[in-house]
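Example 3.2
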Amino acid sequence: MKAVIFCAGKSTRTYPLTVTRPKPLLPILNRPIIELQLEALCPFIDEFVLVVGYREEMIRQHLGEDWKGRKINYVLQEEQRGTGHAVLICEHVVDGPFIAMNGDDLFDPEDLKNLSQQKRPSALVKEVPDPKVYGIYETDMDNKVKRLVEKPKIVFSNIANIGAYLFTPEIFPILHNTPLSERGEIEITSAIQIMAEKMGFWVLPAKGYWLPIGYSWDLLKANAFLLDYMTETKVLGKIMPGAWVEGKVFIDEGTLVRPGSIIEGPAYIGKNCTIGPNCWIRPYTTIGNDCRVGQASEIKNSILFNHAFAPHQNYVGDSILGEGVNLGCGTVTANVRHDGLSPRSVVNGVLIDTNLKKLGAIIGDGVHTGILTAIYPGRKMWPYTFTRPGEIVERDVIGEE
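Structure, written as tokens:
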């Protein structure tokens, strides 16, 4: 069986992190999303078909031509015309039943396995508290689809479409004749509705996790969730006398934890990092490879991409630091609003309520901050921007795309 994975989109909702990389290469638990997906699919998939577009050369370079003995076939979607179009352009490389799925969400491996074993066209679904922001299904008692409506104005169900499907080649003639949506795209949901009416389509309730990455801060949720899956402490690096490690903690090869450092799990620290002296790594933190967390710095519920530095008296809370970020001495990320409301963040020019209790800063690759920089909750800094000493970041710092 083959798996078609949608990896072509630009994903402006996860800016500034995706200004410099495609969304499937965003790291969770120090591994790109696409790697976690391939790992989950590997036991029952013979070949991967990756639909690529935005910065596709980065995905090709990272993954190469095969994954653990399974061939990777790249299909270029030069013009992003919807998820249905992404499936359609794979017609020439698919010759039997196949999995099709979003390249920016994480699904429980057991649910994907169960989906692959279905004997009829099906989709994974999940009950959600706010159906209005999803495509939702109406089904009969046998889980056969009656209708599928994208972002309905009138809610008739809480059974959400979550972006993982089992199709047969019968989908291709349907996609060829699916009317374009209002956005001028071939929508996979429209094709499913036609298939449901003509030959039948079914849903499969997901029993395990589904971790959608819609906004940049969703990485923090997914990271925390997967950290909870860690079962034991494993130390491949070196912990010097006077350092303290408690809870479930993974420390990779080449990493040095200096005296006075406290690491509270669950936490993950990559290769060749320097931690301490006298710093505090708090729960639900993932630190990438070749990072530095130094004297009197505190990191909490955050993700540091590779080569990120918080070297001197920094507070990084509920934040994401992109690759090569360097925080000047005394730089702090505020993560709680004084009025008690959830942090807001501007996405594509619209102020979004994150519905989180705490959110710090989202900082793109290569950012340098001046000493004593203070960053308001939910603010973002574009790649390779900077702050001056003592600067207060009240609004997003926008750079070039």
